[in-house]
Amino acid sequence: MAISVGGNYIDLLDPKRYITGKIIKNTRWHINDNLLGVSEFCPVGRKTSL
């Protein structure tokens, strides 16, 4: 993964590989926080083929 020095934001989780939630922009780290929960409880669901 490339590190962005400019103003571009990158997704924390790849929506093609993971179940993601609503995007919240994190200005400190320049990421789109698309996790499913909050810091106290945040499940991660990976997409797989059946």
Describe the structure in your own words.
The chain is mostly beta strands and 50 residues long. The protein has one domain. 0% of the residues lie in helices and 24% in strands. It contains no helices and 5 strands. The strands form 2 sheets. The chain has a 3-stranded mixed β-sheet, with no helix packed on it. Strand 3 and strand 4 form a beta hairpin. The protein is flat, with a radius of gyration of 12 Å. The termini are far apart. The model has no long low-confidence stretch (mean pLDDT 89).
Mean pLDDT reading: 89
Strand content: 15-25%
Number of beta strands: 5
State the helix count. 0
Q: Rg to the nearest angstrom?
A: 12 Å
Task: State the shape.
Answer: flat
By secondary-structure content and strand pairing, the structural class works out as mainly beta
Order of helices and strands: EEEEE
| Main pleated-sheet profile | 3 strands, mixed
Strand order of the largest sheet: 1-4-3
What distance separates the N and C termini?
Answer: 28 Å
Helicity level = under 10%
Total of domains: 1
Unreliable parts: none
